[in-house]
Fold this sequence. Notes:
The chain is an all-alpha fold. It contains three helices and no strands. The protein has helices at 3-17, 39-53, 67-78.
Amino acid sequence: MNREEIKSAVIKAIVNAAEVNESEVVEEASIMDDLSLSSMEIMVVMSELETKCSMTFGADSKVCVTVGDMIDYIASKQQ
């Protein structure tokens, strides 16, 4: 997947898991603070993305603070 496809998948997963407007899901948005996702919602997002992107989130996924961080993390696992 290229970065744009990953970005689209991340946005879709977040919108599906939480009651947020797609326009709020920007790369600079903090997943917990700005978008107010709960730990459970984050787990749902990660699970959906693991399936969609054929990858797994490891212990190093704690660096995924913003939407952009998550996109970059997934992109790094695709290489």
